[in-house]
UniProtKB/TrEMBL annotation, chains A, B, C:
Subunit structure of this chain's protein: Homotrimer; The trimer binds only one molecule of glutathione.
Family per similarity comment: Belongs to the MAPEG family.
Described function: Conjugation of reduced glutathione to a wide number of exogenous and endogenous hydrophobic electrophiles.
Record EC number: 2.5.1.18
Localization terms from the record: Endoplasmic reticulum membrane; Mitochondrion outer membrane
Molecular function in Gene Ontology: glutathione transferase activity
Segments traversing the membrane: 12-37, 83-111, 131-149
Species of provenance: Castor canadensis (American beaver)
Membrane topology classification: Multi-pass membrane protein
Pfam families for the chain: MAPEG
Protein name in the entry: Microsomal glutathione S-transferase 1
Keyword Transmembrane helix: yes
Keyword annotations of the record: Acetylation, Endoplasmic reticulum, Membrane, Mitochondrion, Mitochondrion outer membrane, Transferase, Transmembrane, Transmembrane helix
Length: 155, 155, 155
């Protein structure tokens, strides 16, 4: 176990652990937001989900798509599309021995940008609020990928 | 290589490796399930996919959406949305030196809940079967996130 | 930090880092491809996105779905569904001490197959081009999962 403790004494890795856990936890709450709006708006994706609410003849009503629910779904999918590269590239970047302050700058910008992206998507704020938040997160991940490939390319 | 072997002698990490591989392999079979139902129901998302089946004039028929196919798609997306946080948080949790029996309890509950979720979604079982399976998996990931942040927060 | 440097002197892990970063960067460009086609075709998912282009009464026109945009979205989602298992299983496989040449074969085939998949999806090439590319990537990930579980199963 000695070297595992050593890994967790590495400050960059500990910082990555904290920020990755925070942003993944935020993403998980998008599922509960979808469930919340589905119940509030009474709009479901599956017949078995509205069984408690009413009879078969109301199927058409309950199976509609709803703007609010679809908006949460899109925000969730956008999270997935952006957080997966951050997780993969960020983990490898953290293990590549970067400067602590540079790494912290990357992690903080990404997490801040994605939280702002969710708020801008769900409120919604006028563009380019959401677009800028997306590009900050995108740029941070791209910058980590560039640093990794520049120093560690092995094909 | 010495310390890599050490990492793989760590029982929590080996257990995480096994359970993560099993649940990811299960998720991969959702792709083949989608392909199976698309071919069986002859319902496709792209014109080039039904080229072997018939002529252009049948496009409308082949490009319909189908309840069965859409159900598998939703189960697959729900897997992605839940397995990505489990992978990220679970990996970091495994490296944080948790108690072996606590870690095994988390991994087994998650994998069991997600397999039950898929069965409940595709059969489908009446609610709240699927909902409960979802919340067990969600709770397990949340519990690992909480333990990580409580012991290792570094912002 | 000694053992972190050791980790990065491990050739399999360095190779995984390079290939995973490349394929995740490729996936990130699917987001920009979607944005490009949305702007070019003037087809948006959210009312706030076309506010700069025109008035409310054109909402119906701007909120249509477009074949080209939906095709990029499907390619992106297919990437997510396949790259997530590769990332998780590939990382654990890299740490399990595999033979360098075997590992390189896996990584190169996967990255090549997924790049070809994207080209075949977006052009589009007639089937079975895309289908074969999908199954090569699927087979590579499955082969890594099998090797992991055969040598490291701990339940």
């Amino acid at each position: 176990m000695a070297h595992l403790n050593q890994l967790l004494e590495n400050e960059v890795f500990m910082a990555f652990t904290s920020y990755a856990t925070i942003i993944l936890t935020k993403m998980m709450f998008m599922s509960t937001a979808t469930a919340f709006y589905r119940l509030k708006r009474k709009v479901f994706a599956n017949p078995e989900d509205y069984a408690a609410f009413g009879k078969e003849e109301n199927a058409k009503k309950y199976l509609q798509t709803d703007d609010r629910v679809e908006r949460v779904r899109r925000a969730h999918l956008n999270d997935l599309e952006n957080i997966v590269p951050f997780l993969g590239i960020g983990l490898l970047y953290s293990l590549s021995g970067p400067d602590l302050s540079t790494a912290l700058l990357h992690f903080r910008l990404f997490v801040g940008a994605r939280i702002y992206h969710t708020i801008a998507y769900l409120t919604p704020f006028p563009q380019p609020n959401r677009g800028l938040a997306f590009f900050v997160g995108f740029g941070v991940t791209f910058s980590m990928a560039y640093r990794l490939l520049k120093s560690r390319l092995y094909l």
